[in-house]
User: What shape does this take?
Amino acid sequence: MSAATARPVPGRLSAPAPGWATEADVVVIGSGIAGLTAALRLRGQVDTILVVTKDVLAAGSTQWAQGGIAAALGPGDTPHEHLVDTLVAGAGACDLDAVQVLVTEGPEAVRELIALGTVFDQGADGELSLTREGGHHRDRIAHAGGDATGAEIQRALIAAIEAAPEIEVVPHALAVDLLLDGPVGTGGVAGVTLHVMGEGQRDGVGAVRCRAVVLASGGLGQVFSQTTNPAVSTGDGMAIALRAGATLRDLEFVQFHPTVMYLGPDSHGQQPLISEAVRGEGAFLVDFEGQRFMHGVHELADLAPRDVVAKAITRRMNETGHPHMWLDARHLGREFWERRFPTILATARSHGVDPVTDLIPVSPACHYASGGVRTDLWGRCDVPGLYATGEVACSGVHGANRLASNSLLEGLVFSRRIAEVLPGELRPWAEPVVDQRVEGLVSGSARERLQQVMTSRAGVLRSATGLSEAVTVLAELAATPAETVDLSSWETTNLLTLSTALAEAALQREETRGSHWREDFPDRDDARWAGHVEESLRGGAATVVFEAEAATDTAELVASLTATEAARGAARGATR
Ligand code: SIN
Assistant: This one.
């Protein structure tokens, strides 16, 4: 463990006393692939399940996933090859056991999704049509509707939920805080407070008593001014978990997607993604002189891992003073565009760019939180009765840089695992203790400044000077109390809690690794920084510490795993 920084954070969000109450064995917070898979798999194993979602069921990130879901499903592909690509992308920060789980259980989990009714694209031979994205050495990405994979998965999952009357859904409900059966540090889950936006019996803040909570509330993209994430991605689950005593890990590893459509300097919020699959099908990056600049940067050129491409684009933008680069996909042709990427085509055209005839302006934007609430291999967090899955979680599969299309798979695989263990671990009903945590709330008006400083100082390119400035500005914003208790203030307080943790983690990690790029420490430094930056609440203050681990030489590890795999293959051959 190395140097710790500590700062006060609200122990709980200020909120009116609950005006209504209910109970359920398990509350699932979030309704993307992770949350709905957990709820569906728990069905029949626990008596009552409540799914809580901040908007409607389809409003989260899953709906927006374009590229697809990665799994070793194609001829000749193996979980081992998927494992190797995942470890290489993760830049020495993956948890090997977690990646093994992901790649070995992935194919079956995807087949189960198909059995549930998800329709993936097929070739003329009736087999799954698989494509390639950055960092993959094989075609292993299953997709649907061309570039509408997430929407199809979400559709199938919602249909299954709607056919399961034993799962109750509470839409338009923000999870405010967990209720614990003891003080933070020892207390386990006894319930959760919700704020339901709407009219009816459950209007306003209420309390749900429960025996377990599954956090599946997605990421924190709204920390930054430009993101591919929808408006609901305000990091609520991570902030709730931190306040309840869970540990956040690897927050500094935020992935910036290289090819997000550039809509101008003032555009903010959710921006249109141009899927990596477009490069997988042959598109390439050019600068304002029409020069391809990915050759010579990486052996996979335009299909290098995402961090490599995002850095190369940012470098070229900085060198030339242009606010974006270009993606050239004109040679794919109209018919191919219409069939393979209908959603992206329509979106680009709606912004006045026709990819069939025009170059597409692109620049990196926040896309995915590789870190999150630390879990074990079964989705368990440090707080008894609390589980986390999907983007809100840090299961260890992504390391410093998530491999393309591994995110839907992670939500799927680890939610199945949670549903395997949770019923046997269900805690007895417990009374929530009186909450002694110090409450707080920051004004919703702080959000824009927060996003600006995080984008300019803690975004793609970071330095000690910039990150220290970010921490200072965030501390000033933390002193802007909310005048009204409302959704905007709750979300902004969560964003501020996470922004500060993220900036402090990025400041601590004095090296460049994966998606964490420090201009003042441009190299990976395994001697000092093999391990994880973690944040937790200790004695009422949020404390950021570095937990060192033995350094992993990825090339050596891959060589040894490959040799073991080859020996296993030979032994299998000999016994046949
Ligand atoms: C993309 O389609 O480029 C995004 C896929 C992913 O984030 O895994």
Observations:
- The radius of gyration is 23 Å.
- The chain has a mean pLDDT of 94.
- The chain has three domains: 23-253+368-425, 260-364, 436-529.
- Residues 66-67, 275-277, 367-368, 404-405, 407 surround succinic acid (CB under 6 Å).
